[in-house]
Design goal:
A: about 160 residues, mainly alpha, about 70% helix, B: mainly beta, Methanol Dehydrogenase, Chain A, eleven-stranded mixed sheet, five-stranded antiparallel sheet, 4 helices, 35 strands, about 5% helix, globular
């Protein structure tokens, strides 16, 4: 890999690596799987990505590819049958572990909308575009996912549904 | 949970520092192909089973001269009109039956809301849990004809001690049609530093395998014991065999009679343990190969895989008979499968029965017998027209499930479903019409003969259904 590609990778990874990894963890719940997906996403970024209009375009492309790769993984035989939590979720604080476990007990369909809307800050319409869902489906999933998580949004982050 | 807790936990969830370097190293190679790293073998029973059943993908060069049989394709004219769960969920599981084109028997099961359902080993099961996740009760049903038959659930309490940790819990089990189904929730993802799971043993209804584990990631290790279901007695299966040579164990595969096992460790490689002879030996030393993966075929034959090429791009397949020491190569120089390519081709390995699927560069499909080296072509069928097809062998490897996805629906959206019957020489393929109100979440084998699709009402994920198909 030449110096320019190395620089591109380092800049992209430093900016978006954690974002990609978090979304993969929210989908998959296993660190090894999330690392595999993160690796594949950045391989694709360097070798197969389209030209980006701006940083936001690039960020959305990364999230979309991450979501698609995670869905591919979830179609795999053993993932379909392994609807259980993995015990290797890294979390330094016990409370964090509890939060992550609660997220991972959500049906898969709810996790990405919740994460992209409440954590990444995308609007319902943007989440719908990213996940190729209707806005009404995103709203429904946000509502039900929030109810299941018993997620209270009183601390300055108001949902739009 | 409040927003600060959610955000704080996600903020602190960061990739490991070494991941960046690992990705960078993988990008050094010129070809734009994915290079998934080798993953550690199973943390849980399901993960372990998955490693055995599905994770090894490889490819082979076309060898038409090896083809000794054909599978004939029967694509049914009538498409299935897939029913969607509508209205209130039932109070008890409900089953309706349908026969499609006089060929495929379908059983549509709707399940009551609010429980933790699962299936496997020929039965449907439901756990009732307390708010903290503790299992309060466990129920089994058999699906026969147009009826769901409640089965008697029995329990066995156990206490096992390994490496300073005491494991105490209850196994829920039932004996149906001569086969045992068992369940134990382990630590249920509570992220403790230990876990355990149970699995049934082919041909045994008196005992189950109990796998005890400790640590996670690179520190993960496991140990197998036998649990007697009548007495709750624990029997150490490896004592005196010299298993310590393979420690720390990360995966154990047993012969049906538990007389021998393949022991594997991320750190020390692959070993063959002979319980009768009380010996454990490295498979590298026994065979002179550098073994990459090892599996047990049905008759205790070992299937060994070795990798070659600059980046492990090719693999060879061998069989090894421990009693005689006979080593036989059945396939050679198989290019490693690239699943993310536009037109993926290659060889997909199944543990069950030592079978594999081979997709040639022209998208034609064959089934391989890794023990005998025989190849069976699927006549008149190519993969070119199918979107992200899936192949899954049944537990004994006598049938292979095929599924393809429409790509329009949320969830799997399975648009075609078929079964290759390797004994009958037939591949029956069913097209499916379903609307967007069904969210199909999983696909697999319910038992040796029936395919299972697990789904939800897409407008309300509280409604669950299980669809079974016998081809």
């Amino acid at each position: 890999m030449d110096a320019e590609l190395t620089r591109q990778f380092e800049a992209s990874y430093d900016a978006y690596g954690a974002m990609v990894y978090r979304l993969a963890m929210v989908y998959l719940g296993r660190t090894a799987d999330a690392e595999d997906v993160t690796q594949e996403v950045f391989c694709r970024l360097l070798w197969r990505a389209p030209g980006f209009a701006d940083g936001e375009h690039k960020k959305r492309w990364l999230l979309q590819v991450t979501a698609n790769l995670c869905k591919d993984q979830l179609k795999g035989f053993w993932r379909k049958r392994a609807a259980v939590l993995d015990a290797d979720i890294p979390a330094e604080h016990e409370a964090d572990r509890g939060v992550l476990e609660a997220i991972l007990t959500l049906p898969e369909a709810y996790r990405a909308p919740i994460h992209l809307h409440y954590y990444e800050g995308y609007s319902v319409a943007e989440v719908a575009e990213l996940l190729r869902l209707s806005s009404s489906a995103v709203k429904m999933r946000l509502k039900r996912g929030r109810e299941r998580l018993k997620l209270e949004l009183e601390l300055g982050k108001e949902g739009s549904v | 949970m409040n927003w600060e807790e959610y955000k704080g936990a996600l903020d602190r969830l960061t990739p490991p520092p070494e991941l960046k370097g690992r990705i960078q190293a993988s990008l050094e190679a010129p070809a734009p192909v994915s290079r998934p790293r080798q993953r550690r073998a199973g943390l849980t029973a399901l993960a372990a089973a998955a490693v055995l059943a599905c994770t090894f993908l490889a490819a082979m060069a076309a060898s038409p001269e090896l083809r000794t049989a054909v599978l004939t394709l029967f694509r049914l004219e009538e498409a299935e009109q897939v029913p969607a769960p509508t209205g209130e969920g039932p109070e008890q599981p409900e089953l309706t039956q349908n026969t499609i084109s006089q060929q495929v028997e379908a059983q549509y099961i709707r399940l009551p809301d609010g429980f933790s359902w699962s299936y496997g080993d020929n039965v449907l099961s439901r756990a009732e849990r307390a708010d903290d996740g503790t299992v309060l009760d466990f129920h089994y049903w058999a699906a026969e004809g147009d009826a769901l038959i409640p089965l008697e659930t029995r329990t066995t309490d156990f206490t096992a001690v390994w490496d300073g940790v005491s494991y105490t819990d209850t196994v829920y089990w039932c004996n149906y049609a001569g086969a045992l189904s068992c369940y134990c929730s382990g630590t249920a993802g509570m992220a403790l530093d230990y876990d355990y799971h149970v699995s049934s043993i082919s041909g045994r209804t008196d005992a189950v395998l109990l796998t005890l584990s400790q640590g996670s990631q690179m520190d993960y290790r496991q140990y197998p014991v036998l649990l007697d279901l009548e007495s709750g007695e624990i029997t150490d299966l490896l004592e005196g065999t010299g298993w310590e040579a393979a420690a720390p164990l990360t995966e154990v595969q047993w012969t049906d009679d538990l007389s021998a096992a393949i022991l594997s460790s991320d750190r020390t490689g692959w070993y063959y343990c002979d319980r009768a002879a009380n010996t454990t030996a490295s498979l590298n030393e026994l065979t002179g190969l550098e073994v990459s993966s090892a599996y047990l075929a049905e008759d205790s034959t070992l299937i060994l895989l070795t990798l070659s090429g600059p980046q492990g791009d090719y693999c060879d397949v061998w069989t090894y008979q421990p009693d005689s020491g006979t080593l036989t190569q059945t396939f050679s120089q198989l290019p490693v499968y690239q699943r993310h390519e536009e037109q993926p081709w290659g060889f997909q390995f199944f543990f069950g029965g030592g079978r594999g699927i081979y997709v040639a560069k022209d998208s034609s499909v064959s089934v391989l017998d890794l023990v005998t080296g025989e190849t069976t072509a699927v006549e008149g069928f190519t993969l070119a027209q199918w979107d992200t097809p899936t192949f899954i062998a049944n537990p004994s490897g006598t049938k292979v499930l095929f599924a393809s996805y429409g790509g329009q629906a949320d969830g799997l959206g399975i648009s075609s479903l078929g079964v290759m019957d390797l004994e009958q020489g037939a591949f029956t393929l069913l097209d499916r019409d379903s609307d967007a109100s069904l969210y199909e979440a999983s696909l697999g084998w319910f038992d040796e003969d029936r395919v299972a699709i697990w789904g939800y009402a897409s407008e309300d994920f509280t409604q669950t259904c299980l669809y079974l198909y016998r081809f």
